[in-house]
Amino acid sequence: MSNAKPKVAFYWCSSCGGCEESIVDLAEDILKVVAAVDIVFWPVALDFKKKDVQAMPDGSIAVSFINGAIRLSEQEEMVKLLRKKSQLVVAHGSCSHLGGIPGLGNFWNRETIFRRAYLTTPSTDNPDKVVPLEKSVVDGKELTLPRFYDTVYALDQVIDVDYYLPGCAPPRDLILNAVTAILEGKLPPKGAVLSPNKSLCDDCERNETKPEKLTIKEIKRPWEVMLDPEKCFLAQGVICMGPATRTGCGERCIEANMPCRGCFGPTDQVYDQGGKFLSAFASILDTNDEKEIDKIVSTIVDPAGTFYRFSLPSSILRRKKLEAVR
Amino acid sequence: MSNGPFEPKLVGFLCNWCSYTGADLAGTARMTYAPNLRIIRVMCSGRVDPQFVLKAFAEGADGVLISGCHPGDCHYQEGNYKALRRAKLLSKMLEQFGIEKERFRLEWVSASEGVKFQHVCNEFTEQIRKLGPLNINQNGGNHEQRQA
Amino acid sequence: MTQRITIDPITRLEGHGKIEIFLDDKGDVDRAILQIPELRGFEQFAVGRPAEEMPRITPRICGVCPTAHHMASTKTLDAVFHVTPTPTARKLRELIYNAFMMEDHTLHFFFLGGPDFVVGPQAPAADRNILGVIGKVGLEIGGKVIKVRRECREIINYLAGKVIHPVCGLPGGVSKGLDEEHRVQFLETAKSAVEFAKFALQIFDDVVLKNKTYVDIIVGEAYKIKTYYMGLVDSKNKVTFYDGDIRVVTPKGEQFIKFKAHEYLQHIAEHVEPWTYIKFPFLKKVGWKGFTEGAESGVYRVAPLARLNASDGMATPLAQKEHDRMYEVLGGKPVHNTLAFHWARLIEALQATETMVQLLEDKSITDTNIRNIPTETPTEGVGIVEAPRGTLIHHYKTDGRGIIEEANLIVATVSNAAAINMSIEKAAKTFIKGGIVSEGLLNMAEMAFRPYDPCHACGTHALPGEMPLIINIYDRNRELVKQLKR
Lengths: 326, 148, 486
Known about the structure:
Chain A is an alpha/beta fold. Chain A has 3 domains: 7-101 and 151-184, NADH:ubiquinone oxidoreductase-like, 20kDa subunit (Rossmann fold, 3-Layer(aba) Sandwich), CATH 3.40.50; 108-149, no CATH class; 200-307, no CATH class. Chain A is built from 12 helices and 9 strands. Chain A has helices at 18-24, 29-36, 50-55, 73-85, 94-98, 110-120, 172-184, 200-203, 252-255, 273-283, 290-298, 303-307; strands spanning 7-12, 38-41, 61-67, 70-72, 86-92, 135-138, 141-144, 148-153, 163-165. In chain A, strands 2-1-3-5-9 form a 5-stranded parallel sheet, sandwiched between helices. Chain A is globular, with a radius of gyration of 22 Å. Chain B is α/β, with parallel strands linked by helices. Chain B contains 4 helices and 4 strands. Chain C folds into 2 domains: 3-40 and 420-460 and 467-485, no CATH class; 42-373 and 404-416, Cytochrome-c3 Hydrogenase, chain B, CATH 1.10.645.10. Helix content of chain C is 40%, strand content 18%. In chain C, the strands form 5 sheets. In chain C, strands 3-2-1-15-16 form a 5-stranded antiparallel sheet, with helices on one face. A 4-stranded mixed sheet of chain C has the order 8-7-6-11. A 3-stranded antiparallel sheet of chain C has the order 12-13-14. In chain C, helix 4 (87-118) runs antiparallel to helix 11, helix 6 (139-160) runs antiparallel to helix 7 and helix 12 (413-431) packs antiparallel against helix 13 (439-449). The longest helix of chain C has 32 residues, at 87-118. The two termini of chain C are 26 Å apart. The chains are: A alpha/beta, B alpha/beta, C alpha+beta. Chains A and C meet through helix 1, helix 2, helix 6 and helix 9 of A and strand 1, strand 3, helix 1, helix 6 and strand 9 of C.
């Protein structure tokens, strides 16, 4: 009986391909990984089809890395299949972890998205109001497309997930550590997010520039002011999601002199990243006068879209309430 | 599906020192007020994490109330001002989720204001009754349409 | 006896594509259709977002070419906020952008498209990937590929924060500048990148052009369609990536139109079909005539070969020489042979590296004035760049506070969608006859779409593996009679 290498699978749902690129960015290190595992499914690169996965015995894949949010019926089918065939499932990247940027679609639904894409965009020329259909006929031949859901889902809202690799895209160190931990069998308890359980501010270089009592008198949008490359963004009045965001990314955005937008999601202690940030941010606004408060709040232009930029589907409310009539 | 006229499900976070005591006063004085408000006692309105409000809506509340001490009277000095700032921002954000401003309220009710509590309770209930159920469907959209 | 052949999934393409091939009674191809079963809705969920967040939201359309979206979006903000970037900011953006063009084109040639030629279209599928390429050209060269890519990506990492989903773009400038130390370091990177780009063209010459079989395939009819061509050009009508006017030439190579970014709606429209989620842009002044080629059809192509066809040459000297050589070999402008996209791609990579050297030799790139703060009320704007995979258009309309009210995106590969369909159908019709389906079919189908380097073609081909294609052949009762795997 051969000492077979552990089988690994990769799959992408409603994804941009950035998490696939994050694997490539392992560069030379990927060869060590490749030598240690047997990749049995990776639609972007390798031969194997859904049929091959269906034919595998249940649980025969050691670990499946799944990225992308769930937005279409085909994606739901595939992840359920992979769950059956895998011992471990890792949600790879913000989209599968939290819903990600595609999750912003949860402010809308299929009808509004289709209407925009296929009917109302100024460049679309569609006098017959054609829209994509799950079943259509061309020259007498029937063609099918997967169903586009009203709502975007994070991976653990559709299947059971063992671990989460956060980030958009996860940095290479995090990926390497995660893969090594899996291969060596040294994993934390199930359900863990594979990055330290502290907020970004803890590791941020600008933390020392935060005043003892941080308060915000006026909010500035990044385009309105010269951004001081050394001072804490919140201290400059610029919204930065650092306090409500898990660390581990290396503060890459901060180092490019742009504020954090929360792609790593919250720490373990927080249920809902946007709600928690709202709480913290509102608490530090520097006024007790109701009219002043109204004035400052009016300058926070898109609270839901900013505080839940990556995490809308996994938030407590999950989505904007659908219109009553469909 | 309807079991008679709509009875709003309301959740209220009342601060221990003022509002909860005020509500108690309304009760012991046998004032009549709508039974729709489910009361949760917190030590201070500033204790109310916005996540509580979100959770209440997600779990089926048609309206959520936070009630605390009047500005300047907070037992912990500034807690109610924090509540005020959070409530303002939260109200704005809830609208982006399709939850009307009227469904989320912040009130100041002192320990002696049993009458005010009665009014708030009745008025809030009627307002939400007129507005109708929220029907947030917490599983996210029409989940029946997903594949089995 | 009608047969239907399903190729699912297509790989190194839009990620989630499938091809349906229908045979007629004689077993010849009646129709071949590529369906894209994916949509996310960026044009809608942009609504309500602050405009300055769009350069950080739109890169999530594609994690392989996020910099293209980031730059198109940032330029759109310049237009929306009516502000011009500082000269230094413009140089920095161009530096980031050319570094990106270089590493992305390199990725495609060595990891993706190149293996078809370097290892050979008839080679075993297991060899047609980067390891096969390394096996053919040597480990040292393979190492160079990885290194030059990594170093170019380092430039982007440094200036833009993250190479996967950059963050530095702001209306009127960029968020981070370049110091002298890094200018010197990156200049070294750029110079070695020029050498590498020349070297890649040399490999193409040795391995492809000196091989008659490959040349026959390139110039053959199976992979040729005559369309209009579109690309950005500078004031001298030379190929440019970051900024310019949009020029379109006819299938005969004559200028058809030339327009500025904000005029795009007068010239480009999108057609919708019910069997796919992707739309099909076409030239308005010609009209949508269906999936047909020629001057009467509004179908146009974008990306490397199209850009070269639509231009009067390259903007840098070494690239210009290679450009002239390609057209000499292939018989003059315009070239309609789809496989020549691979060649044009390497010529573009060379220009990108030469441009990087030019920018980094200019010491004023370390100037600290990297932002103009907008002062006017935001309204509406269009930003266009040449993504590696074609002309990329972002268009936003905002309210007075700069909150997005409407967004329209025409995303590079989309402009090639009709042509890709046509290329696949043409190749299918050429190679499948009399109901005979073979391994050759698999090669043919892939080689028809891969030159376009469609978005989502992710460079994760550093691994041994087979071409992920399966062909199912069904009889008229929908019973599976045969399955070809590779």
